[in-house]
From TrEMBL, chains A, B:
Keyword DNA-binding listed: yes
Coiled coil: none
DNA-binding region positions on the chain: 40-59
Keywords carried by this UniProt record: DNA-binding, Transcription, Transcription regulation
Xref: Pfam families: TetR_C_11, TetR_N
Keyword DNA-binding applies: yes
UniProt protein name: TetR family transcriptional regulator
HTH tetR-type domain location: 17-77
Record InterPro entries: Homeodomain-like_sf, HTH-type_TetR-like_transc_reg, HTH_TetR, Tet_transcr_reg_TetR-rel_C_sf, TetR_C
Superkingdom as given in the UniProt entry: Bacteria
Lineage, uppermost ranks: Bacteria, Bacillati, Actinomycetota, Actinomycetes, Micromonosporales
Length: 200, 200
DNA sequence: CGTATCCGGTAATGGCCAGTACCGGTAACG
DNA sequence: CGTTACCGGTACTGGCCATTACCGGATACG
């Protein structure tokens, strides 16, 4: 039920669809900054320049709002179809590192980190959060590495699933626990010093 | 100020020092299970078979209690002096994987994960939590890897600081986000397939 | 011994904040 | 046009705990 029941038959003014995006974006911003517990509905409303009523007219609770925001965040992912294909794994992985994507990934990781405490209790959220976000990054890596294996660039007995987690895991740790930014140097070093050696 | 001011000059019964450990242990257990927000003072009291007053007689707030518990958790670390020394890096790292340590590390990671949302807001906690816990594990790895470099077992230009984070980061991701246990197979694979190739 | 203080319980107190109700104003249905 | 429902604001309500206050026993200091 990501989209609430918007099929109206009644009279009068309709919900303004442009407010939705503003509210969901504000939700992610606040989540990334202060986590689920620190996030107050009023902060989201204020940042979205909306009244609390406007939020509650769309989502029945804070929890539902957060679930939709996180789910939507997971949907704007890299898109497994349009992955780079430069002919080498190193080139592919580095092509994945565009500055906008890095910033976006950083926000995603921060959102998830601020959510970990409720993952255990809330079932659907854990799914959306983990699978849809870091998960997409891992999936992209999996595809790229598998290609390298098929191409003979990487050794045939490599554990693709396992190695696909390498870069996202290390990055998540750097962002969430060390509080550092995700810079290109770090990622390039990860590819050259760790991932590629592991595939030879 | 880890230890409260216990220098009493007044008359009457003293604080029973054996209650402290029970309460701090209970705090860590609850934190690992439900995170900071989900943790209610009453849960801790109940698990420690204590009254709430007994807690508040020792710590002025939930926050202070958690800080001391987490700080103390950081102090029972591997102990950089008694690190294994088997002659090979592989042997050393695997010797570090004792079942009790794995269970303890898993609890630590779960505690930290349930705390991430408050790390941003509370300064000292982030320090205690990150540096003192995963940090100790990273430090142990750093020492072992440096030894391997000195010994000529690993290549001389290896970035020891960087590689020391490999196993702890990957393990933390596995425990905190994937919710899986930290088993020996996973760690051995990490050493053989990732760390050692990166050092050749 | 006498009493100050602790102990494990349990019953207030009080603040924070999700959720609700309304307000004056406005846009979009019939 | 006349409703009806929305919009951004701003109270108000109610529940959940952190924190405090007590209770009827222990206990250890002087």
């Amino acid at each position: 039920m990501p989209e609430n029941d918007r099929t109206r038959t009644t009279r009068g003014r309709q919900l303004d669809p442009t407010r939705d995006a503003a509210i969901l974006d504000a939700t992610l911003d606040v989540l990334a900054e202060v986590g689920y517990t620190g996030m107050k509905i009023e902060m989201v409303a204020e940042r979205a320049k909306a009244g609390k009523g406007t939020l509650y007219r769309r989502w029945p609770s804070k929890e539902e709002l957060v679930i939709e925001a996180v789910t939507r965040m997971g949907q704007r992912d890299v898109g497994a179809e349009q992955l780079p294909d430069t002919g080498t794994l190193r080139g592919d992985i580095i092509a994945l590192i565009r500055p906008e994507l890095m910033e976006e990934q950083s926000q995603k990781v921060r959102v998830i980190a601020g959510l970990t405490s409720m993952l255990a209790s809330h079932e659907g959220l854990a799914e959306s959060a983990n699978n849809a976000n870091i998960g997409a990054w891992i999936t992209a890596n999996r595809v790229l590495i598998q290609r390298a294996v098929d191409r003979g660039e990487a050794k045939a007995d490599a554990d693709v699933d396992f190695l696909a987690r390498l870069i996202p895991s290390m990055s998540a740790h750097r962002i969430a626990l060390e509080g550092k930014a995700l810079d290109k140097d770090f990622l390039v070093k990860l590819v050259d010093e760790v991932l590629l050696p592991a595939l030879r």
